[in-house]
Amino acid sequence: MSTTLKVAVLGAAGRMGATVCRAVEGADDLELVARLDAGDPVDASTLAGADVAVDFTVPSATEANVHAVLDAGAHAVVGTTGWDDASRGRVTEHLGRVNSGRPDGQGLGVLIAPNFGLSAVLAMTFAAKAARYFESAEVIELHHPDKVDAPSGTARHTAAAVARARSEAGLTAMPDATESGVEARGADVDGVRVHAVRLRGLVAHEEILFGNVGEQLVIRQDSFDRVSFMPGVLLAVREVVSRPGLTVGLENVLDLS
Ligand SMILES: NC(=O)C1=CN([C@@H]2O[C@H](COP(=O)(O)OP(=O)(O)OC[C@H]3O[C@@H](n4cnc5c(N)ncnc54)[C@H](OP(=O)(O)O)[C@@H]3O)[C@@H](O)[C@H]2O)C=CC1
Ligand SMILES: O=C(O)C1=N[C@H](C(=O)O)C[C@H](O)C1
Question: Which of this chain's residues are annotated to bind (S)-2,3,4,5-tetrahydrodipicolinate (predicted)?
Fold first, then answer.
């Protein structure tokens, strides 16, 4: 028996939110029941019976939105950036509280993904696999100039995965003789340098560069259009209802982790 999932979109007037609304409306098994944006309260009444709320808002609002969604008894799919260990920890703790009062298998889920694009998820996965084999690794992310945060959530997630793989392989700091102009070397994310480009005409792009003596590997992905994120967002909406607790990264849903 097929069931229709009710979906609310937070940040519905934004670039991603509007694209998600169209994608949900175009899916036979999903029903768009609420479009919320800045200034709208997030509660059981405004969520209008949604099973899942999708958040593409702003880093300063997303955590509070997720807590409000959980208090209203709905699952959450989150694409907004700005999450760190502390905010993820608070959501895990909140999930533990609400799910302890629910029957087994019916707990609420939150799925946070820094990138829902298949090319980006694969690029991150391949980069993590390659990391242990190279002396040097750097990340370049390239985005539209209306983006408010840098480096991108995707680049942070990628750099952290590369750093983790290097550490597990026993690799130490990368070679870098820079003495002056350190500010030109990009952000330091867990010891991996991350460079952010903002350019009119771009959407979302990432390169991961690996170097050894006499050779280089470049992994690159390009999202030319925000529709590229939609298969991943819809997959997450369908999956989160049967994944109690916190899931971070679409790679876990795609069985790539
Ligand atoms: N995970 C992924 O695959 C992707 C993630 N992103 C991330 O998604 C986020 C949104 O990106 P994008 O759509 O380009 O940004 P936009 O600025 O276009 O959209 C954000 C929307 O959220 C609204 N908003 C602000 N505060 C709240 C609030 N408290 N509650 C509800 N809505 C609110 C904004 O309204 P107003 O303008 O009036 O403030 C705006 O309409 C960013 O963090 C971005 O990095 C983007 C693409 C893909
Ligand atoms: O702001 C964007 O556009 C994007 N944000 C996410 C990020 O910061 O990684 C995902 C994608 O890169 C597009």
Answer: 144, 153-154
